[in-house]
Every structure is written in C-alpha cells, then in structure tokens.
Design brief:
By secondary structure, the chain is an all-beta fold. It has no helices and 32 strands. InterPro entries: Sialidase_sf.
Length: 409
C-alpha cells in the first residue's frame, strides 16, 4: 500500500440537512511518524489520556499463535518503549472487535481484549485488565456474570476520574448460544443487549445495568464523558429491522431511556459491522455514523442540542462511495473533525474533514490510501494540542504493520 506523501485536498459537492457553507481553510502538510510497533502488528487504537498525552495500543501476532497486546506513549516526536499489557492464545481478536485502553487523570489504566469462552464461533467474553498508578497489570476481570457461552464484546471504556472506569459492551446472554457461524442469526435465540458496569482499581464491579434490551449484533459502541456525565451511542435494532443510532445518558442516579440520534430508516436484515463514534467538549457532544438507508451510503454527524437531551438534525459529511468506519474528535463546543473510509473508483482512502455545528464543512483531506479489506480494520484519529493524529493497519502479504501520521490544525 502506498502512503500519500503530500497533502491532497478533495472538493466534493456538499449535501446537508442544514443550510451551511463550505470553508476554504487549508490544513498543513502531512507529517509521518515512526511507529513503535513490532512485527505483524495491527489494530491500533489511539486515545488521549487524562494526562493529555497520546497513547496507542495495538496487537502483535506471534508465529506460535499467541497474541500480545501492547501500548506506547508519544512524547514529542518519539514513542516510549512498548509495554506489554497482556498475552493469550485463546483470544477472539478480529478487525471489528479489537482491544482498547483508557487512562484517567490520575494515571490509572485499563485495557480490554476478547477471549474465547467455548468452541462456538462467536462465543467469547470481555476480559478487562487494570493497572493502578505505580502498580502492575492485573489478571483479567470479566464484567458480565451471566456465564453463558455467547458473544460479549464491542466495548466502550470511559474514565470517571475518581479511580473508576465506566464500561459498556454488547451482551449476548439472551441470544441462545455462540455456535452460529453468522452474525445474522445468533443461534435463533433472543436479542443482543447493551449493558454497563463500573470497575475500580481493585477489580470490583458496581452499578451493573442493562441499557437497551435489543440492539444490533456486532457494531462498535461509542461513549463520551461530558461535564454532566456519560453518553453512550450504539446501533439499535427495531422489530422491523431498522438499524439506526440510539443513545443513553446517565442522568441523576440512573440511565435514561434509549432515544434515537436520528431516524435514518436503514432497514437491513443483518449487522453492517459499522458502529458510531462520539466525542465531547465540556457539555457538548458530537456523534458520527455510517448509514446506507435507501441504498445510499452516507457518513453523518450530529451535535447535541443546547438542552443536552437530544441531537440536532444531522449534517451529511460524505455521500459519495463511503465505506464508513468513522471516528470523531471535538476541538471546541462548535466544531469537530470526522474521519471515514471512502472509495474513489476501486481505491480506498482514509479521509477527514472539519464539520461545525452550524452546518459548515471544510474540504475533505486525504490521509492515506489504504485497503478496504477487513484486515485493514478501523482507522483511528485523536487530537492533542492542535495536532491531529491518525493510525491505521497496513495489510501486507508478509504480515500487517501500523502506520501513523500527524496534521497541524
């Protein structure tokens, strides 16, 4: 795969649910960053820690069948020596349900990885490890206690900055088993749910709850922490097989009832494996997602309205030949950057653009040519001090690798 070495600005016709204008601001040229990863590395995940530093986790597959989960911290232009978080030879790690980490403002860390719970194709558990300040990585904790050999994954982790972390995940305890070979059936049992719990630095779990009793089976979930508390977004599933975005908030001492982000009306009898992302700036949130309602692929962004109880009408960010796989970050309470995978002919590119709450859009920027295969995973984006960082998987015949780039805003 060839990485673009110069900045490419692509002009497209803007279509928006709100009136707006296209801005002309230029982004400074691409800067490539040397990756800290080793051989056969993939599935990078970028996160801004509570200490405002950039962290990246990733997996490395060994010839023996073992998988290592590692992380590193960016300091200036260089990464710290990689540190091992956990290893295993029974993990269920794939392009869509990948390990992640989170870091709070005290330096506490957590990470998760999925591990098999039986021989069923999609029978696996969420495994969470934690590292208190000055301590070592713990043994895995499983946040769900149902004990069923079903699918549990697609995790969101949010630091609460009080020594605890909020977890949410898709939970298949009602689906009837993990022996199915397709996400479209889930063994013919009940529906996938989304659940939550809070984990502290001694491994104790509290505040366990079900957030929604029927959701899409295998799309990523997203979460953001506002000054008023957490917001979780996910792809919902109706009795009529509408697979649109919903959200819940923690209000007072309880979770709100699920609400639609927007009624796209995407009816699909199967999981599109393409979940939402959400970001927050103080009490403002913005969420990005992919939809193919009415057979038209689109990437949309919606900002939370001033009440903090619902989202505004969405802004269409891309409606060309989008593949989705979105990410989003906020830079202030009016603006966000959204990234996605787009096809130009048969060539896939990672792109991003700025979108503002008033509907205005800057021109899309090409980060890199990439692969649309599952192995390329979900490109990652994070913002630190006016610098926009990207990480993605390069798919190669002799093994995968991780690439990184940086743009100045």
């Amino acid at each position: 795969m060839k990485l673009l070495t110069i900045l490419t600005i692509i002009s497209i016709a803007l279509v928006s649910c709100q009136p707006g204008k296209e801005e002309k601001k230029e982004i400074t040229a691409l800067k490539q960053i040397e990756s800290p990863t080793g051989n056969n590395a993939s599935l990078p995940y970028l996160i801004k820690g509570g200490d405002s530093r950039l962290y990246m986790s990733w997996v490395e597959k060994r010839d023996s069948g073992w998988i290592d989960l590692k992380y590193s911290i960016l300091s200036g232009d260089s990464w710290s020596a990689p540190e091992l978080i956990a290893s295993g030879n029974d993990w269920f790690v794939n392009w869509a349900d990948y390990p992640m980490m989170a870091v709070d403002n005290q330096g506490n860390m957590i990470a998760h990885f999925p591990a098999k719970s039986s021989s069923g194709t999609y029978s696996y558990d969420v495994n969470v490890v934690y590292k208190p300040v000055g301590g070592e990585w713990s043994q895995p904790v499983i946040p769900h206690n149902d004990g069923t050999p079903t699918e549990h994954g697609f995790v969101t982790m949010l630091p609460k900055n009080d020594g605890t972390f909020l977890l949410s995940w898709l939970d298949g305890r009602n689906t009837g088993g993990g022996d199915h070979d397709s996400h479209d059936s889930h063994g013919g049992g009940g529906a996938m749910t989304i659940r939550t719990a809070t984990l502290d630095m001694t491994g104790n779990l509290t505040q366990e709850a079900e957030l929604d009793s029927k959701v899409c089976d295998c799309c990523q979930t997203g979460g953001a922490m506002t000054l008023n508390g957490p917001v979780i977004v996910y792809r919902d599933r109706s009795e009529e097989e509408m697979r649109d975005m919903s959200f819940v908030r923690f209000v007072g001492n309880d979770w709100s009832e699920p609400q639609k982000v927007n009624s796209d009306g995407w009816k699909i009898a199967g999981c599109p494996v393409n979940g939402p992302r959400i970001a927050a700036y103080e009490n403002t949130t913005a969420t990005a997602w992919f939809t193919a309602a009415e057979g038209i692929a689109k990437v949309k962004v919606a900002f939370m309205d001033d009440s903090g109880e619902s989202f505004q009408e969405p802004i269409i960010v891309d409606d060309s030949v989008s593949v989705g796989r979105v990410d989003i970050v906020m830079i202030d309470n009016q603006s966000a950057y959204v990234s996605w995978l787009d096809l130009e002919g048969e060539t896939p590119f990672i792109k991003f653009r700025k979108v503002s709450r008033d509907g205005s859009l800057e021109k899309p920027v090409v980060v890199s040519e990439t692969s649309a295969s599952r192995g390329s995973g979900f490109p990652q984006m994070e913002v630190i001090d006016g610098e926009l960082f990207f990480a993605w998987t390069n798919v190669g015949e002799e093994g995968n690798s991780v690439s990184l780039s940086q743009f100045s805003l």
